[in-house]
Amino acid sequence: MASGEEDGTVEEKETNNKKRTKGTIATAWLTFYNIAMTAGWLVLAVAMVRYYLQKGTHKGLYRNIARTLKFFQTFALLEVGHCAIGIVRTSVIVTGVQVCSRIFMVWFVTNSIRQIQNEESVILFVVVWTITEITRYSFYTFNLLNHLPYFIKWARYNMFIVMYPLGVIGELLTIHASLPYVRRSGMYSLRLPNKYNVSFDYYYFLIIVMLSYIPCKNSTHNKTS
């Protein structure tokens, strides 16, 4: 009987040790990830400020920072993986929708339609994203390090009041500006007849995307990475 209890105790200790090890590794990875993302968005912010100070205009700014923006926004797909494997307690679906909506704006709207890249609305949503992400990732970093400055905490939970509507306005105006070009070019559309016997009109799809902002857009982008 004593032997059985000892075996059980050993197994419990081993299980607890494994959990602690996994927890330590997960925390270390998340800390590294959030530091890297904070740094990435800071680099983006500095690049935007430097460009504007040098050129005195927003025209050409998007093309100047496009590579950095695409890289770090696409890299955020890892957050869906964090939720899927359970190291972050957030819905995979919610996180997936939030991340993919950003990636869609970058790759399938702004990057694909060069004629709109100098629109002020593009700079608006990029600036909003940058401020939001610097705040969010620095919040997670300091939180993981158990040293959260009051200002970061305050910014994380209050700045969305201004940032959210500005970001939505920027994204909606950008999609709206793209509609004439999409309609004329027929980009990403599939017309009948075709071998798949399927029709898809990207122009109307973008209109549906715009309408989806009304009930569905999550203002706080609340992912606990």
From TrEMBL:
<protein>
    <recommendedName>
        <fullName>Very-long-chain (3R)-3-hydroxyacyl-CoA dehydratase</fullName>
        <ecNumber>4.2.1.134</ecNumber>
    </recommendedName>
</protein>
<feature type="transmembrane region" description="Helical">
    <location>
        <begin position="154"/>
        <end position="175"/>
    </location>
</feature>
<dbReference type="GO" id="GO:0030148">
    <property type="term" value="P:sphingolipid biosynthetic process"/>
</dbReference>
<keyword id="KW-1133">Transmembrane helix</keyword>
<dbReference type="GO" id="GO:0005789">
    <property type="term" value="C:endoplasmic reticulum membrane"/>
</dbReference>
<keyword id="KW-0443">Lipid metabolism</keyword>
<feature type="transmembrane region" description="Helical">
    <location>
        <begin position="122"/>
        <end position="142"/>
    </location>
</feature>
<dbReference type="InterPro" id="IPR007482">
    <property type="entry name" value="Tyr_Pase-like_PTPLA"/>
</dbReference>
<comment type="function">
    <text>Catalyzes the third of the four reactions of the long-chain fatty acids elongation cycle. This endoplasmic reticulum-bound enzymatic process, allows the addition of two carbons to the chain of long- and very long-chain fatty acids/VLCFAs per cycle. This enzyme catalyzes the dehydration of the 3-hydroxyacyl-CoA intermediate into trans-2,3-enoyl-CoA, within each cycle of fatty acid elongation. Thereby, it participates to the production of VLCFAs of different chain lengths that are involved in multiple biological processes as precursors of membrane lipids and lipid mediators.</text>
</comment>
<dbReference type="GO" id="GO:0042761">
    <property type="term" value="P:very long-chain fatty acid biosynthetic process"/>
</dbReference>
<dbReference type="GO" id="GO:0102158">
    <property type="term" value="F:very-long-chain (3R)-3-hydroxyacyl-CoA dehydratase activity"/>
</dbReference>
<feature type="transmembrane region" description="Helical">
    <location>
        <begin position="32"/>
        <end position="53"/>
    </location>
</feature>
<comment type="similarity">
    <text>Belongs to the very long-chain fatty acids dehydratase HACD family.</text>
</comment>
<keyword id="KW-0456">Lyase</keyword>
<dbReference type="GO" id="GO:0030497">
    <property type="term" value="P:fatty acid elongation"/>
</dbReference>
<keyword id="KW-0276">Fatty acid metabolism</keyword>
<comment type="pathway">
    <text>Lipid metabolism; fatty acid biosynthesis.</text>
</comment>
<keyword id="KW-0472">Membrane</keyword>
<keyword id="KW-0275">Fatty acid biosynthesis</keyword>
<feature type="transmembrane region" description="Helical">
    <location>
        <begin position="196"/>
        <end position="214"/>
    </location>
</feature>
<keyword id="KW-0256">Endoplasmic reticulum</keyword>
<keyword id="KW-0812">Transmembrane</keyword>
<keyword id="KW-0444">Lipid biosynthesis</keyword>
<dbReference type="Pfam" id="PF04387">
    <property type="entry name" value="PTPLA"/>
</dbReference>
